[in-house]
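Input sequence (157 aa), recorded before submission:
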Amino acid sequence: MEARLDLLSNPVSGKIAKHFAAAGAAVKDSGLPASTRELVLLRASQINGCAFCVDMHTKEAAHAGETAQRLHLVAAWREATVFSDAERAALELTEEGTRIADGAGGVSDDVWANAAKHYDENQLAGLVATIAMINAFNRFNVIVQQPAGWYQVGQHL
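Predicted structure, token format:
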């Protein structure tokens, strides 16, 4: 399989990707735990069917010390006992923020309030930015049919 467009070598999409990456780097200053960020990146990518991002974020999370058990259970987090209440709130916000078209009104007040119980305003800003950016990256990769499996840890971070 070959991508329809090489997003990194094309001057326009390459410039866009660099700006997105810079925005993603700013999230690190939000205080959002890195492990939560990786779980969110993986879950949104699973929902969106972005194989490239699932590959990338699974490898990055494992490299950062995330366990295989937790990575395997992200897709079924509601029934898993290995996630904290804060992580569960972040994953729930991720799902509603990713599936906006599936729910009338977008993210519910209850889901937002639950996330706000566990994260301060800076962390919430980082969480919302992470969800928005991964959804954009997922769409870039799905639209151009970016193949998965070749990503190496640290390659695009």
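Checked by second reader. The chain has a mean pLDDT of 90.
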